[in-house]
Amino acid sequence: MKRIMDKLKGRQILLGVIIGVLLMGGAGYAVDNLTSESVSYKRKDGSIMTVKQALDDLIGKADELNDKVTYYESMGVKYLADQVQVGDYVAYDAGTWSTTVGMPNKQGDFGGYTGGKSKNDMVTCGDMVVPKYRGWRVLEKDEKTKTVTIVHASQSECHFFLNNVNDSISKLNARANDYKNSKYATSARSINKSDTDKISGASNLRNTDNRYWLTDPYGDNDLYLMSLGGGYTYSHNSNSCGSGCAYGFRPVVVLKAKILTSGKVRDEFNQEAWNLIA
Q1: How many domains does the chain have?
Q2: Is 65 in a helix, a strand, or coil?
Q3: Which one of 50, 98, 125, 157 is most buried, counting C-beta atoms within 10 A?
Q4: Same domain for 112 and 218?
Q5: pTM for the complete prediction?
Q6: Which residue intervals of the chain are DSSP H helices?
Q7: pLDDT computed for residue 11 by the predictor
């Protein structure tokens, strides 16, 4: 990478010469006057900058970037997408809850979480089965674009659904934005059937021993639901919860392309997880 940076710096110096050629009309004149504060040009914003200032700025940025590359190389930093496998834990932080909200009981509502508690933690929903898993795991990765998509390891809160399919799908996807840490992530959504189809073989990634909603309709009035055993079912009503039920919500977060990592650390739940460098 250092050789690449050296080439980049050389090209930036060449760019300075070219600027001088274009402004002064001759290579010799340009080279003789690159250090002169009298040679200037007008920028797009209308301000005046000398060729020397422009060149110094370019070289300074190259030096700064080169310092970062050297630091990363010394730390063994690599692209996250090149290191992780589907199912691996990632030390991602979605923040903490600001308020406490009890179990939801109206169409489209969310709840079941406690103020001051980590959003990376799990909650107990309609089945009253305490989830086993916490944190964030790799759902999929794209090695070409160096993009990694992660999913909550269990259920971060509960969602109440009763008949209104479109309303719940919209609210589930919108709710996921509350888990988007802008330092590391570009977008978020709720988990869907396409996701769970892909991870049927990953250990405990699909089967969390809890029921959670998928943003896929089953007929006109039902949503797909992941069962306690990791299979597909559907519901708009549940005998265990009465008329409608609050089952789990699993947010999915798409990390920025080319996120870096220097290796595994212990996350807030003392699990081995890949660290993130933005």
Answers
A1: 2
A2: helix
A3: 125
A4: yes
A5: 0.75
A6: 2-24, 27-33, 51-74, 80-83, 165-175, 193-198
A7: 47
